[in-house]
Amino acid sequence: MLPFPLFLALKYLQPKRNFASIIPVITILGVSLGVAILIIVLAVMTGFGDAWKEKILSFKPHITVHHYSGAIENTDTVCDIIAAVEGVETVSPTIMTPVMIGTGDDRTPITATVIGIDPARGSILSHLESNIIEGTYNIEGNKVLIGIDLATRLGIPLGEEFLCYSPLNLKSADELYLPEELNLTGIYNMGMRDYDDFIVITSLGLARDIVGADSGAQMIHVQITDPEKAWQEAADIRAALGRQYRVSTWYEEDRTLFEALRTEKTMMFILLAFIAIVAAFCVTNTLIVITIQKTGEIGLLKALGFSGFQMKAAFLLNGLIQCVVGELLGIGLGYLVLANLQNIVAGLARVGVEVFPKAIYGLAEIPWRIVPSDLAAVFGTVFLFCAAASYLPAWRAANMNPVQAINQE
């Protein structure tokens, strides 16, 4: 047999053949929409963080080593010392420099960043081979790779040559450095605008020619077994090289981005929690309507000996049942929308509504991932709001005077 408060709560939730029966349904739908919106937004924000992290770790080094003088001359010696550290997979001397590139016609050259790596050594950029959509991975001699967006802007096919203007022309007013001729052998697509539209991958020797260096490198890129433990390997590398070298991890290089995403996710949760407050007001309104409709019945039950605590528990359970049902439906609705998110975005794009342009967000599609802790936070927050919202009408029902309630009926 059900306890009396639960029995009464379920009885008041049973649909009646009148218009008032739709009120609990509207309340449950309100809670569902609030929970679904919270879950969708938090999942997308988490997905953004995951996508940026994945793209960063597939393109940028896990650890970067610089010399405080600005250049590393004895690259082979330094690379051997780093390679001896436990957990290190690949070590690659690298040159990275801003340049101007163009086809030599009347069009204005565009800015890009040249990254020169040693083809003989393993590098994080060697993984670009799996992202090549046209051509081959070949950076020998003057051969280069560029992103799909940059290739579109340049408007040149595979095998064609284009010019790369050295930044040394801006440093020296008395000398003129002729542009290097680069041959396009491969086009990659990383799905991120910052990489697909601004990066030119070359050999280390060609990059040295562009910056006017005879040997050495600007930095050394290190790839490790577990990127999540980059701080540990960075400390070991720092101890092995000495104080004249600066060692930074991938997280330190992009700390601002990840902190901004975390802060934005927290702020979105706080702001969207007001939707849950609105849903809680729906619960309050529903229970107030029930207490008014059942005033005589509440007075009769109290006159028969049922305590105020039992009446309060019954109305609290009534509100919480609506809340829990609404939350479960909201979780299901959130999963449903997220599972079909790309189809929804594609459908909107077909009718002229561009929801997620790559040029703005830098990603090819909307990423998402539901974290159990976020799900628990949403469920717990909405539940607390609904519990608080249910208390006032429950308190009113518990403190009704049975004689006045029956006479009012």
List the main descriptive attributes of the protein structure presented here.
16% strand, 55% helix, single chain, elongated, six-stranded mixed β-barrel, 409 residues, alpha+beta, 2 domains
User: How would a crystallographer describe the biggest sheet?
Assistant: 6 strands, mixed, barrel
Give the SSE string: HHEHEEEEHEHEHEHEHEHHHHHHHH
Q: Report the strand count.
A: 10
Mean pLDDT: 85
Tally the structural domains: 2
Sheet-strand content, in percent, reads 15-25%
Percent in helix: 40-55%
Query: Can you tell me the residue ranges where pLDDT is under 50 for at least 5 consecutive residues?
Result: none
**Broad shape:** elongated
Distance between the termini: 30 Å
Strand order of the largest sheet: 2-3-8-5-7-6
Radius of gyration of CA atoms, rounded to a whole number: 32 Å
Structural class: alpha+beta
Number of helices: 16
